[in-house]
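hiii so um. not sure if this is the right channel but i have a protein structure encoded as tokens and i wanna go backwards to a sequence. like what aa goes where. can anyone help
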């Protein structure tokens, strides 16, 4: 049994999707970041960075793992799934995983902040992060024009890490127009039953189906956390 401490965010969905894909038993603990639960003492003892997600592996002496990328690697090594065993395949997977961790996640996160959450609109910041995200999306599109998944022919933790972020492109005012390979990959991964189940943990949030009023309300709720 694995305890999963998470909320409905791209980083959280990485791990719930991985757990579903790997068929591991897990118990969900909803850490509500909009109310600041991730900063409470009990949680910071698990995750010193005060972020989600975190897992506790009850089958491995209550071993705690934080940072979504590290969790994916840990689970892949634990199960032998979605991480190629050969050195080259493993390296390629890690390269694209790091591409998400160092590029897609931080840049798209900043695009979301300045486009959706910042108390004032700063055109330079919005344009800067939107343009960088588009560049990164084009890198993904070129790669996916060469192979069906980021690490090659097989679906891996690199895809699991990247999909939850890229699928939310519209929330940051981003576009994938003209990026057919990327769009096809989004649909291909979204069709996986385990991805659909993991995407609804701990609760269903479909930004693209919210009305403008609902989007504004959600942005206002998150804005306070961002400012703090």
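sure thing!! here u go:
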């Amino acid at each position: 049994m694995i305890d999963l401490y998470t909320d409905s965010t791209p980083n959280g969905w990485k791990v719930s999707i991985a757990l579903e894909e790997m068929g591991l038993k897990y118990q969900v603990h909803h850490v509500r970041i909009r109310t600041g639960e991730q900063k409470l003492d009990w949680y910071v003892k698990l995750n010193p960075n005060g972020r989600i997600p975190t897992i506790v592996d009850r089958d491995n002496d209550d071993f705690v793992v934080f940072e979504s990328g590290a969790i994916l690697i840990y689970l892949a090594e634990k199960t032998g799934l979605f991480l190629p065993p050969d050195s080259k395949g493993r390296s390629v997977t890690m390269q694209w995983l790091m591409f998400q961790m160092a590029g897609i996640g931080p840049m798209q996160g900043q695009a979301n902040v300045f486009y959706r959450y910042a108390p004032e609109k700063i055109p330079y910041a919005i344009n800067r992060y939107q343009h960088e995200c588009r560049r990164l999306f084009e890198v993904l599109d070129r790669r996916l024009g060469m192979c069906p998944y980021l690490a090659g022919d097989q679906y891996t933790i690199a895809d699991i890490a990247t999909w939850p972020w890229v699928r939310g492109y519209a929330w940051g005012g981003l576009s994938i127009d003209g990026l057919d390979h990327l769009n096809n990959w989004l649909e291909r991964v979204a069709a996986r039953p385990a991805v659909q189940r993991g995407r609804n943990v701990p609760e269903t949030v479909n930004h693209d189906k919210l009305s403008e009023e609902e989007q504004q309300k959600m942005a206002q709720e998150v804005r306070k956390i961002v400012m703090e």
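oh and The domain at 87-198 is CATH 1.20.1050.10 (Glutathione S-transferase Yfyf (Class Pi); Chain A, domain 2).
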